Amino acid sequence: MNNSNTIISTRKAVMIGCGYVGSASVFSLMESGLFSEIVLIDVDHTKAEGEAMDISHGIPFGKPMKIYAGTYDDIVGAEIIIITAGANQKPGETRLDLVHKNVAIYKSIIPEISKRNFQGILLVVSNPVDILTYVAMKLSGLPENHVIGSGTVLDTARLKYQTGELLGVDSRSVHAFIIGEHGDSEIAAWSSANISGIPIDDFCSMRGHHSHDEEMDKIGDKVKNSAYEIIKRKQATYYGIAVSVRRICEVILRDEKSILPISNMMHGEYGIEDIALSFPAIVGKDGVETKVPISLDDEEIEALKNSAKVLKDIMKSVDL
After folding, report:
1. Which residues have a Cβ under 8 Å from the Cβ of 220 and sit 6 or more positions away?
2. How many whole angstroms separate alpha carbon 46 and alpha carbon 246?
């Protein structure tokens, strides 16, 4: 083989924030083999070094790559920057309670990214993710389609899992979305839900569940309260979101054009303007390609408008 003609493709990811979520996400990305280089940046550089060392020791069981603690100068050439930095959600605290703490943190992070002329995809994971996605869009100057929030990708996975458990079916055969805020006003879009093409109500009846609305409400509440229940038991959630981050990166790097309920800007859909929230969109190498107009009933549309209002009311208190 003539090595002089070999083109080496370096796929670099940057993780800003090495707490539970950031570290678990880097571990998941290490196992995926998607990247050849992963940089960890944290205000506590020693912590970033420790996480990089620990995760690197798993490389012999996976694929060759370089994982190291770096600085903002190491952003250059990255395809994806993932931001998980921020204050943690405490027991009894809503995601929106975190807003002012984490907007301040983003005001220190985003300008550092902008200084390095980053042109890739910015993936926002810190909470409240919809607010911070909007903040990142406004502060970064990046094209809107290049700024993506992890949104309700995890909530939707939880919805599929709970529905699969109830109906005794593979959760991958469940097609349904959580939309709106990643938080207390999120909506389970049951009117468009199906199990491999079979409407959810029909499938429920087929499996002996006849109190459809009651069962669906229970699942919706379980999904909405999942994070609170986990935090109550172990202080933080990180494995589910780590796999969600991996999936979003996969979709971008492979240009899969998969449909994911990521947080992105609304421009008049359902009368909602100038706020980021989760709605299904085609995602690929250039970020968000287009929203996917799933079927919603009148009640769901009103709930989505209310979710947008909750977020816009919070944004009024944010100084950009």
Report:
1. 159, 188, 190
2. 24
Task: Look at the alpha carbons of 115, 120, 122, 123 in this order and tell me if their dihedral is positive or negative.
Answer: negative
* Structural domain count, the chain: 2
Are residues 102 and 180 located together in one domain of the fold? no
Residues 6+ apart with CB under 8 A from 316: none
Residue-by-residue DSSP string for 270-290: GG-EEEEEEEEEEEETTEEEE
What distance in Å separates the CA atoms of residue 256 and residue 96, rounded to the nearest whole number?
Answer: 32
Residues 187 and 55 in one domain: no
Could you tell me if 137 and 160 lie in one domain? Answer: no
Report helix angle 239-253 to 20-32, nearest 10: 50
Range of the domain at 249: 153-315
Catalytic residue among 45, 57, 100, 182: 182
Give the pLDDT confidence of 88-104 residue by residue, as tens digits: 767 777 766 778 889 99
Q: What is the CA radius of gyration of the chain?
A: 20
- Write out pLDDT tens, residues 26-57: 999 999 999 999 999 999 999 999 999 999 99
pTM above 0.85, yes or no: yes
Active site residue 100: no
